[in-house]
Every structure is written in structure tokens, then in C-alpha cells.
Amino acid sequence: MDAKARNCLLQHREALEKDIKTSYIMDHMISDGFLTISEEEKVRNEPTQQQRAAMLIKMILKKDNDSYVSFYNALLHEGYKDLAALLHDGIPVVSSSSGKDSVSGITSYVRTVLCEGGVPQRPVVFVTRKKLVNAIQQKLSKLKGEPGWVTIHGMAGCGKSVLAAEAVRDHSLLEGCFPGGVHWVSVGKQDKSGLLMKLQNLCTRLDQDESFSQRLPLNIEEAKDRLRILMLRKHPRSLLILDDVWDSWVLKAFDNQCQILLTTRDKSVTDSVMGPKYVVPVESSLGKEKGLEILSLFVNMKKADLPEQAHSIIKECKGSPLVVSLIGALLRDFPNRWEYYLKQLQNKQFKRIRKSSSYDYEALDEAMSISVEMLREDIKDYYTDLSILQKDVKVPTKVLCILWDMETEEVEDILQEFVNKSLLFCDRNGKSFRYYLHDLQVDFLTEKNCSQLQDLHKKIITQFQRYHQPHTLSPDQEDCMYWYNFLAYHMASAKMHKELCALMFSLDWIKAKTELVGPAHLIHEFVEYRHILDEKDCAVSENFQEFLSLNGHLLGRQPFPNIVQLGLCEPETSEVYQQAKLQAKQEVDNGMLYLEWINKKNITNLSRLVVRPHTDAVYHACFSEDGQRIASCGADKTLQVFKAETGEKLLEIKAHEDEVLCCAFSTDDRFIATCSVDKKVKIWNSMTGELVHTYDEHSEQVNCCHFTNSSHHLLLATGSSDCFLKLWDLNQKECRNTMFGHTNSVNHCRFSPDDKLLASCSADGTLKLWDATSANERKSINVKQFFLNSEDPQEDMEVIVKCCSWSADGARIMVAAKNKIFLWNIDSRSKVADCRGHLSWVHGVMFSPDGSSFLTSSDDQTIRLWETKKVCKNSAVMLKQEVDVVFQENEVMVLAVDHIRRLQLINGRTGQIDYLTEAQVSCCCLSPHLQYIAFGDENGAIEILELVNNRIFQSRFQHKKTVWHIQFTADEKTLISSSDDSEIQVWNWQLDKCIFLRGHQETVKDFRLLKNSRLLSWSFDGTVKVWNIITGNKEKDFVCHQGTVLSCDISHDATKFSSTSADKTAKIWNVSNGELLHLCAPLSEEGAATHGGWVTDLCFSPDGKMLISAGGYIKWWNVVTGESSQTFYTNGTNLKKIHVSPDFKTYVTVDNLGILYILQTLE
User: Per the UniProt record, which residue ranges are transmembrane (predicted)?
Assistant: First the structure.
């Protein structure tokens, strides 16, 4: 320190020691880098205030010139202006060329200029916001020495003042653009006398030697004039900074050819002044990392060492620099109060979060409320109305037009005033405007107006009811999305319980809302408002929630299914069914077609939730440890995280460059691991979706990953197509252990509950158990042997074990292979249960943490949640899809074969089953008068069984290959059969004569008997042929499709016939000339066929006006227009055949899950 500065400090030492409080002074010096934390501790250890001041001055005397300047600035900032004046003469002369300071990157020249201009020091804790600072500096340099205005605007506490000060903390900017210096004026909320005082102080500061005038200006006009002369003559090319300007009339006092930088919450303040104007908007929140950086600096810890509460505090602060700083300052003084301040924030106790030395308001609520107080009286109430808005929700103007009963233009004018004052934000999207509040403003408004909230919510509902009917909102209305998402929220908040129940228990509302936004949000609302909905009837609430949960995968698809028809499939005791039946009856009177599933009582639903979060096959899904979240991954290369109860999406991450094959939560739920075809393993933060680690040591695709169950020492196991398993420690970069033993791809791995064993399953057909510590193989189970007694042919027995999951006690393990799920007892190796529900390969199974439910994921793009109890109890009979049906008066008799090869006769009305015989059959049929049954097998043999006496007749004219279809003629004397050998046999079994119909080139798929001894047949060769079964002659030959013809039917008047094909189309033809009349099922835009797959069967109504088709589901068509009249979604898919009663009112089919459907038209 030079002698002059040192002497000045020694001369005034006594006065300084007597008056100063050291804590805030030290904050400034620490932030400047001229005082260390240990020096601060040394000062604080002194017993009295005066001794602390003496110790500080003693330290400064040993330091350099820059420390003197820092101390001087600190005095100015903390209001010790008289003491700073004593030290003013001793300020060292610093040359503008002196080098940059190593700590702050600011030269002594800059420090002196800013100090003399009264520019605030950096806050005690400072984090750079380079992008914004650069934007301000660019705008300032655009002034180019000419008068003009640069405005920094943003809401309270977003850091405007700090940014303004930081922008001028730049050597080249000051030297090049503002060599006359910088002058800071804290304006704030002022009346005229307050403004005059500010102007007088500024004039005094600019004219310290009083060379212009001995007295102070006496009014604003005089002060404005004095300021103009001083700036022009004494301080040319200087910058005037006006901090926190509230009113435009204030700026007029400074509108005198100056260069001005100002900060404000109201960007319209410069409307009243002349000259070039530039604006820099400041976003209302810091990023999470910046927030954590500020906290870490305040509490003097590394970011990584901050406690868990730090992340929650940043989240609760909503990124506001002010709030983060307020909390940081409090934590520096009370380092053990993390939990306490987090609770205060969560409980919105803003008054308890008191001021720091650098902010003008006592607490955060005061900073907010002063902005609101400044609004015009006639619009204050409108701002109060915004208390009902939710966080992060952008509200269309139309919603507020309805709320306030005003024209759009009037509403926009009012809202623009709020926007100008940074009390509201506007998002312009094309022509429409959407408005939203910052999270802190929402918290402030709800706390301030808590007593009025119920009435405010009631007001918006009342206004809504004046303008709209809930289910008649149309998607082209600007406000419709808002009402669909928040109508229930407003009703619940208004305590309008009756209205809420009426809304949520309305099929019309469910249809309208799910059609637009899908089912997840609705399920979420059923969970959220369960306490209200259960008041009316908890069973009804459960009915609706279950209906949405189990049909979610259908309700999210296009074309949107008929919700009334879906409702009719619910149990008859369900409120959903009763409402659907009521609606259906009304619509049937207007010509609509609906179907009742009359044997549905026999079906138990085992799934609890079905969701479709991916756009392609789902390869894996898993629970978080607390059971609240589900993560899933699949062929669309994404990782999805959603709520376990509702299916509501929480995270979507583009995780890998190729298909993502597996995902796993860590025990503490902090991480999710993913692995992929791209050979990489990645670790993600489960809350934010940030990438934490990437491992790249497998040489083939990585199929599975699983964390240990204890977080004490977290390990990750991975299995790959390179036949190896690897163990990873998250604290190390390389693999810890590699396990050898499988001879084919490792598909899945799982640690046992105690982490001692690792189970792995493989394409080699084995399940292996490994010692997790030593990596040695302990046990190997050959899963293939459990399949050998299955109905599958022996030669197809390649069993790839896809997946395994342990029960909580480690005694049982669940295994998925093919499209089946088995539960095995490890010790006894006995099968406990199996369940079917997926329409395609099952890729993964996993128990919930408490074992009460489990997840399965499949190629059918769905994830199903099952209840373990129900699955273990269920032993439903699975029917094969080859069935025959006879309709007699009011009876429906079904002949079917079940999964254990029993031939059974089922009464469709009563559900009664008669077991006939066991047989290895490929097809079966009933005679029209129920006297005989016939069946064919895979070897081409055909047998007839007489039901009365169990006599058997065997055909000696055996087919060479599998028999696919057999049928009796009306007189029961002749049996017709078709086969893979491309031949049709007409066997008069009573006379034992046979006619062979030969003409097809490939497998005869099926045939249909017509009148006058004619027969219609269709084949894999793409042709349809008409035969005379008495003569054996071929009468007509149609080439209909490029691919296999799957089904055909002819209208009752024999003028039209229809055909469907493997090319996923259905066509209607003219019989006489072969002309194509209609194409029923072209591919839709997405490429998904209208039928959900191949159309496998067709049937005309007796009047020829309707057509029914079977495929992925059942559809009814209007033959005249070619349009669909109704769709029935079966639980399974791949329907092979539909049997239709002569009156076209009863329909029978079996899906690929073995479920029998007897459907009847609703009268």
C-alpha cells in the first residue's frame, strides 16, 4: 500500500474502529477477493465490535492499494458515506494501464471508476451470467457516444441490478465508450419530493468542487437543467445508470441528451422519452446448476458435497436469483438449517425469508406485493383473479375472456399492462397469445389471496357453464385444451363436489377428453380427487378408473374407438356399463349398431393397468424402489418414466443411438441404467434425465442390466450377446468382474434379494445362478425341460429364456419364455402359475417391490400391470381358435378344443360345458342338428363321432397334409374338407363315396357352401373359385388379390361376393362379371391397417347391406358406402374366423388368448 493511503487509514483509524460493523464490510471484501475466509474467522473471534473493527483495519494496513479501494467501496455500499469521505483523499492513484486483477479479472482503473460512480459491488456470492452481460454490453456499445436508452427488464428478484453493475465492470467498455465515467442512481418507488432529493444528491456528486453552483436545485425542472449542464460540460461521454425505475414520469427528469442504462420491472417506462432505445429482457429463473453454484459459494462447500436438500431448495426457489441468494445468506449464518428453510419455502412462508444487505425489501413477499400495489385501481382485481392459475400453465386469452366476460381486445389490453410490469409473461404463438405467471408469483398470489381462492375457482366454473357444455368443446376452439386439462381442478378447488362427480362419472366427458389428450391425465385426476369422488360412491370411482386403466392402450389410438361399445364390455354391475347401455339404447333407436358380449361373466381381468408409452415394441419395464414410478425402454430408442398408478409421463429421454433393450432403477432410485444394441451401458439421473456415466466394454449388444438391492455398495450387472456377464462399480471407470459360462446370448440377469446370487438366463435355454462376490457359477437349471410336456411340437422346441425375476423372499423366480410367463419355485422346481394377455412376444417381467403386482412388457407396444394374487388363483380354460358353431332358434352351441386337447360342447347362453373326448385335432365341426361331430388332424385323417352312441366313422380318402376346414351339408350326409394339399374332398360318408375338387395351386384356406349344391373356395394362390359339388366341375374362377386370399363370403342374393387378403385389404366384387365394387380397408396414413392386421374372415348380412370382418378385431361395414359402422375390440387379437347367425344378430369368435366371445346385437 502506498504511503498516502496508509497514512490516511492510520489518521482516521479511531473513527473507523468506533463506528463500523464488520460483517457486511467483510462480505464485500471477500467477494472482491481481498480477504480470505480464515481472516474473516480471525476477525469474528474478537469479543467486541470495536475490537473486530480494529483487527480488520490492522489486516488492511498489511495489504496492497487494491485492498484499500475494496474497503473504501464497501464503506460506501453499506451506508458509511461520511467515513468513506474521510478516506477519499487517500485513494491511491492507479494508472488505467495497470494489469488485470488475478481474482476478479477487473483492473484497478475499473475499480476506481465504479467506486467513484457509486456502482454496487458484486454481491457476496456472485455467479456469472455471461450471455446476458454480453447482450447488455453489446446494446451499450450501440449507443456510440450518442444519447439513448438501454433497458434491462424482468420481474422482481431476477438479478437485473447485479447484471447492470456487471456489464460496466469491463475495462475496454469504460475506456472506449464511457471515458467520462459511470454514475449509479438507485431510483426505486418515488414521489416528486423523493425524486428531487435523488437529483440533488446526483448533482452534488457530479459537482464536488461546487464550480457550477453553491446551492442545490430547488425543483425538478431546475435539477433537470443542472444535470444536463453537468453531464455536458463536466462529465461528457459518461453513462448514467438508473436502477429500479417504476414510473415513466421519473425518466422525463433524466431525458436530457444523456446515455442511460436503466433497470425496471415495467418495460413500457421508456415509452415517454426520446432517442434510440434498446431492450434486454432477463429471464425469470437461473438454471439448476447456476442455483447450486450460488448456494455452494454461500456456504463455502463444493457443489458435489451439498446436502440432498440443496437440490430441493433450488427447485422450490423456482430459479429466482433473489430467493436463492436470500436462502444462501441465511444458510451461511445458520449452516444447520437446510431442512428448516426448505420447509419454509415449501410452506410458502416468504415472510420468514428475510432481507440480505443488498436488497431493498424486508422480505420476498414485500418485493412482490409492492409491484401489485402499483397497478391501477381498476385492474387490481383482475390480477387477483389470476390466483387460480396453475404453475407452468400457459393460458389462452379466450379463457380470460370467458372469466371476465369481455372482448378479446379488452382482455389483451389489461394483460399487456401486467406484462409490462413483469407481473405476467406472454408467449406469442402466431396469432394467439398465451399468458403465464412465474412460479414465485403463483405462490405469492395463492398465499396472499388464500381466503378468496374457493370463490375465485367458483367464479371461473360459473362463467364456463354460461359459455360451454363440457363434452361439446371442439378441438378447434382456442381454449378447449385448457378446459379439458383444468376443469376438474377448478371444480375440486371450488369444492363443487357434486359438479365434479357429474363430470368425472360422465362417459361423454371421458370420450371427449381421452380423444384429445389420451387417458393418462384422466386416470391421474381419478387418483388426485379420489377423496371427493369416493364421497359419492367409491365403487363407481373404481369402475371408471379401472375402465380407463385397462382400455388406455385403445383410447390412445386412431381412429378413436367407440367409447360406448367399450363400456358395454364392462361387467354388468359397473356404472360404466350401465351408462353405456343407456346411451347405446338411445343411439340404437337412431340406427346405430351396438353389441353385447353375452358370455363375458366367465372372463376375469387380471391386468390392473395397460399403457402404451412407446411408438414401437417395449423391451423392458421396471418399478422404482418405492413403487411410485415405472421406467420403460424399447425399439424407439427412448427411455420413458411414468407414474405407476396412472401412466402419466414424467420423463422422455432419447437414450441411445439404437434400440434400448433394458433399463433398471438403482436401489435408492437416484439412477436409471440403460443398455442398448449400440453396445453401450448408460447411467442417468432418474429425476432430471441427465447422463451420469457411459460404459463401453461389451463387444456385442448389451441385453440386460440390474443393480444390487443394497445401496451400501452399489453394483450394476450387465449381460450381452457376447455370452458374458459383467459387474460394474459406479465409482470406477472399468468393469470389476466378467462371468463366463453361457454358450449363447445372455438375455437377462437379476441379483437375488440378499445380493449373494446373480441369476442369468440365456438363449442357450438355461437359467444360471452365480456367486456375486467370487463370480463363480453355483447352479444351472435347464428351462427347456419344462416345455417338453407342452402342446408345442417337439421339433420346434428352441426355448429362448427371455427374462427372470426373484420374489422378495428369494424362494421363487419368474421366467418368461415365448409368449408365456411362468412362476417357478426354485427348490422344488414346480410351476405355480402362468398368465396370458399380451398379443405378441413378452420381453420382460418384473415384480413390484412388495410383490403384490408385476409388470410385463411386449412387442405389442403395451406394458401391463398384473395383480399377483389374481394370477396365481386363476386357472381359466384356454380355447384353441378352431371352433364350430351351430345356431338353433335361441340357442348357440359351440364346439371347441381347449389347451389340454379336450373336445367340448359349450352352450353359449348358459355357459354349460360338456366334455366329449380328447383328440389331437386341427379343425372340428358340428352337424346342423347336433347329431354328429367331425374332426380332422395334422396328418390329413378325418373322423366322424356320432354323439348318441359314441360310434366313430373314419374316412379312407385321407388328405396328404393338415386338414384346415370341414363342414357338413344341410342333410348331414356329406362332409366337405379342405387341406394344405390344395385339394377339396366331398365325402358322402354314409355311402362312403368321394368327389375331389382339384384346381387350386396352393393350400385351400377355406370354403363356404352356397345354395344349389355350389361351393365357394379360396386359396393361398390368390384365387376364388365356384364349384358344383355334385359334378365336381369348376364353374367360375376369379383372380382377386396379389397375396393369399384369407376369407370370402357371398351375399344372400348371390349377386356380390367379398374377399380379404394378406395384403390387408377387403374387396367386394360383382359375381356375374367379376367387377370390383368396393375397396373396404385401404391402409391408413400411419400405415396401420384399419383391421389391426390381416382380415381373416368376412360375412354378409341377409339383406346384403352389411358386412362383418374379423382380423385384429371385429368390424361391421356398410356395404353401400364402404364405411365402418362399429368396431369390437377383443382382449386378444389375430381372430381366425367369425361365425354369424342366420338373422345376422349373433356372432361367435375366439381370440389368440383362447377367450370365447358370443356377441349379440343390442336391440
Answer: none
Say whether 665 sits in a helix, a strand or coil. strand
Beta strands, E only, 774-851: 777-782, 801-806, 812-817, 820-825, 831-835, 842-847
Going by their DSSP bridges, the two strands 595-597 and 1156-1161 should be labelled as antiparallel
Domain with residue 502: its CATH number is 1.25.40.370
Separation between Cα atoms, residue 813 and residue 750, nearest integer Å: 10
For residues 95 and 182, state if they share a domain.
Answer: no
**Least confident span in 707-711, 723-727, 792-796, 1019-1023:** 792-796
Same domain, 679 and 781: yes
Per-residue cell: 1054: 348371390
C-beta separation of 1155 from 1143 below 8 A: no
| Contacts for 593 with CB less than 8 Å, ≥ 6 apart | 1116, 1125, 1126, 1161
Which residues, including other chains, have CB under 8 Å from residue 222's CB and lie 6 or more apart? none
- Pick the most confident of 475-479, 486-490, 1093-1097: 486-490
Q: Give strand pairing partners of 867.
A: 853
At 360 the pLDDT is 45
Domain span at 568: 451-590
- Asked whether residue 666 falls in the same domain as residue 774, the answer is yes
- 3-state helix, strand, coil split of the chain in percent (to 5) is 30, 30, 40
Q: Are strands 725-729 and 735-739 parallel, antiparallel or unpaired?
A: antiparallel
Indicate the range of 557-571, 760-774, 1084-1098 predicted with least confidence.
Answer: 1084-1098
How many separate domains does the chain show?
5
Q: What is the SS3 assignment for 329?
A: helix
CATH of residue 641: 2.130.10.10
Question: 872, 906, 929 — which closes off a domain?
Answer: 872
Q: What is the pLDDT of residues 1111-1149, one digit of tens each?
A: 888 999 888 888 889 999 888 778 888 999 989 999 999
Residue-level pLDDT at 648: 81
